[in-house]
Write a structure and sequence with these properties.
The protein is about 70% helix and about 0% strand. The protein has one helix and no strands.
């Protein structure tokens, strides 16, 4: 076989140098791409770890808040139960005191007329007895003993007590 011409050898060598340069360039780009991918993977791993940590912290905070709210709910339920018992006791006391309150209202309603009656009786007490010197007066003597109110028939007048003004209150 014969040797290739020098021009062809030079072209082949130039082609090999260009291919070798292209391979070196592609290897450099591949190396840069691998570094970029590795760097991004590390950042993503780090970011994923940060997110997992934050998620765990949120889960713990949520659990603490739920526990606190359950405790508050139990406390509130106990307070409601206590207040309901107090309301029941007060309702029971109100039912016991209601007749007394009605009696006091009746007493208050009757107070002004009773005060007037007592004032009239006190005025009658100050008048004193009638003078017995006037024998012609219809209330002198024995007739004054018959002054009294009776709720029975007129025939029962002989059971009447003599009238005496005074207060027993």
């Amino acid at each position: 076989m014969s040797a290739p011409p020098p021009l062809q050898i030079r072209e082949a060598n130039a082609h090999l140098v260009a291919v070798h340069r292209r391979v070196a360039e592609l290897e450099a780009r591949l190396d840069a791409a691998e570094r970029t991918v590795r760097s991004q993977a590390e950042r993503l791993t780090h970011h994923d770890q940060e997110l997992r940590t934050a998620l765990d912290e949120l889960g713990c905070a949520k659990d603490r808040e739920i526990a606190a709210l359950q405790e508050q709910l139990l406390t509130s339920e106990a307070t409601v139960h206590s207040l309901q018992a107090a309301v029941h006791q007060r309702d029971k006391l109100i039912k016991q005191l209601q007749p007394r309150a009605e009696l006091l209202q009746d007493m208050c309603r009757w107070r002004p007329p009773l005060a007037g009656l007592l004032a009239a009786l006190a005025g009658a007490e100050h008048l004193g007895p009638l003078p017995a010197s006037d024998p012609g007066h219809p209330l002198s003597g024995e007739a004054s003993l018959l002054l009294a109110n009776s709720t029975e028939e007129e025939g029962d007048r002989d059971h009447l007590q003599p009238a005496v003004f005074g207060t027993t209150v």
